[in-house]
Amino acid sequence: MTMRVRSAMALAPILLLAACSGAAGDGNPAEPAALTLTPGAWAADGERASYADEDGTLLASFRCDAETAELVLEMPGGFADGARPAMLLRAGDFMHGVDPVEVRAGADGPVRLARLPAGGPLTDAIRGFPVPLTIESDGGEPVMIETDAVLQGYFERCAAAAGGPEGGQ
């Protein structure tokens, strides 16, 4: 069974403008301001893009690692006992498997970290058109999240920061 989560497409342009407007020189680079999550939509700042479900619960975040030209997916929770620490991400006609997935202790419990290329086919599919992103892991319920202009813009900025031509590979 797939949990389908829809974004508020009407808020996407507003959130994109808000994310771009205050990211540059906000004083304290050591401690970034908390990202305000909008239930059912992506929100982004200079540090990350995050999605919260309709109840306001964080489902997923992406951080850009420009040095390695990768996007780092962070999802709350660990893996079930005996489950393979791996994830399969799908967007459009593209899939990307991450094996193994790193699990770190976070302030609110375990956090899964999966790295994917900033200019790979999966991220290019999301940057090109808002397609659903499905995230599956062994022993866990698949999660489907609608992508939007906010996530597309964040992926575009990450690809450009990673040095790809036209923000790509």
Low-confidence spans: 1-31, 165-169
**Number of extended strands:** 11
Strand order of the largest sheet: 2-3-4-5-9-8
Helix fraction by DSSP (H/I, runs of at least 4): 10-25%
List the total number of helices: 3
pLDDT average, as an integer? 81
Main beta sheet, described?
A: 6 strands, antiparallel
How would you describe this structure to a colleague?
With 169 residues, this protein is an alpha+beta fold. It has three helices and eleven strands, in the order βαββββββββαββα. It has a six-stranded antiparallel sheet. A five-stranded mixed sheet has the order 1-11-10-6-7. A hairpin with a 2-residue loop joins strand 8 and strand 9 (109-117). Helix 2 packs across helix 3 (149-161). The longest helix has 13 residues, at 149-161. Residues 1-31 and 165-169 have low confidence and may be disordered.
Summary keywords:
169 residues; alpha+beta; six-stranded antiparallel beta sheet; 3 helices; disordered N terminus
Short description:
The protein is α+β, with helices and mostly antiparallel strands and 169 residues long.
